[in-house]
Design brief:
By secondary structure, the protein is an alpha+beta fold. The protein has two domains: 80 residues; 164 residues, Alpha-Beta Plaits (2-Layer Sandwich). It has eight helices and seven strands; from the N terminus they run H-H-H-H-E-H-H-E-E-H-E-E-E-H-E. The protein has a five-stranded mixed beta sheet with strand order 2-3-1-6-7, sandwiched between helices. A two-stranded antiparallel ribbon has the order 4-5. The longest helix has 53 residues.
Length: 299
């Protein structure tokens, strides 16, 4: 790929449908953290909203307390002994009933609060796990999650005798893009490639950002021939994803891809990845010729 507009500093492209207001990078992380913290509860010192039933219960309790105090102070002097005794007994029974109701109401409220907090903590835990295993820029899984799943998938492949393929991908000429348009635009290219990969792979496949401008995909139950088809499909999809510069220059994306299959190439996760990495850089070495710049190839 040849970038003719060396002086350009910005690249404009129409936002994909549904991407309006989208935030990438550190700002996205901060937005996610704020949305998580907002659901924990009210800020310290802020009053807890009260339901109408809570106010009614407290009002009735206050009225009952005032009536009992008035009965104790003025009752003996304004009413007969029998009437005073009857009202005293009624007050005791009413107070006991009120106490039982308050205890049951308080227990029900606490049970509901515990259920609400348990559901919220479960949701919070799930969102934190997502943040821990997702790359904020591309939306794919991160390096740590990839290694955990690679070991698991290799073990399962060997146990059940099913093939497993690893695709290790590197963006072509990414340094030139950064040097020409800046790192912010480079991040947009990374995000775009991540979106393309996520759309092209199956639900059972695992796509991750390996690091920098490198991506990796784990293809369970996939042999070499089918993996090459998938790799070629990814190459075409990424190559067709273009962004436009102010000078109407079409900037095409390219990928170099290294393929390694378990158990044909290796039975160990580390060695399998090394083989894919070696084949990736063999392909990058082959495309250093001027006519090969910007192409997407599979090794």
């Amino acid at each position: 790929m040849t970038c003719r507009s060396r002086g350009a500093r910005r690249i404009r492209r129409p936002a994909p449908a549904g991407d309006e207001g989208r935030v990438d990078g550190p700002a996205k992380d901060q937005q996610q953290r704020r949305s998580i913290l907002q659901g924990i509860g009210p800020e310290p010192g802020s009053p807890r909203p009260r339901r109408p039933s809570d106010r009614a219960v407290k009002a009735f309790g206050g009225l009952l307390l005032l009536c009992t105090a008035a009965l104790i102070v003025a009752g003996p002097s304004v009413m007969s002994r029998n009437a005073y005794t009857s009202l005293e007994l009624f007050s005791i029974i009413t107070g006991a009933a009120y106490g039982i109701y308050v205890a049951a109401h308080s227990r029900s409220t606490h049970v509901n609060l515990e259920r609400a907090y348990s559901a919220h903590l479960e949701e919070l835990s799930q969102r934190l796990r997502t943040m821990a295993y997702r790359d904020s820029l591309t939306g794919l899984y991160n390096h740590r999650y990839f290694y955990e799943q690679l070991s698991h998938e290799v073990e399962r492949s060997l146990r059940y005798g099913q093939p497993l393929t690893v695709l290790l991908m590197d963006m072509n000429n990414f340094k030139d893009i950064n040097d020409t348009y800046g790192h912010i635009i480079g991040d947009k290219f990374l995000s775009l490639v991540g979106q393309v990969i996520a759309r092209q792979i199956r639900g059972s496949d695992i796509g991750a950002r390996y690091g920098g401008d490198e991506f990796v995909v784990i293809l369970p139950n996939t042999g070499l021939d089918e993996a090459r088809v998938t790799a070629q499909k990814l190459s075409v999809a990424v190559r067709q994803a273009a962004m436009m510069s102010p000078s109407e220059e079409s900037v095409k994306l390219g990928l170099s891809i290294g393929v390694a299959v378990c158990p044909d190439d290796s039975r160990g996760p580390g060695e399998l990845l090394q083989i894919a990495d070696r084949r990736l850089y063999e392909e990058k070495a082959r495309r250093k010729q001027p006519r090969g710049r910007g192409r997407s190839e599979v090794a």
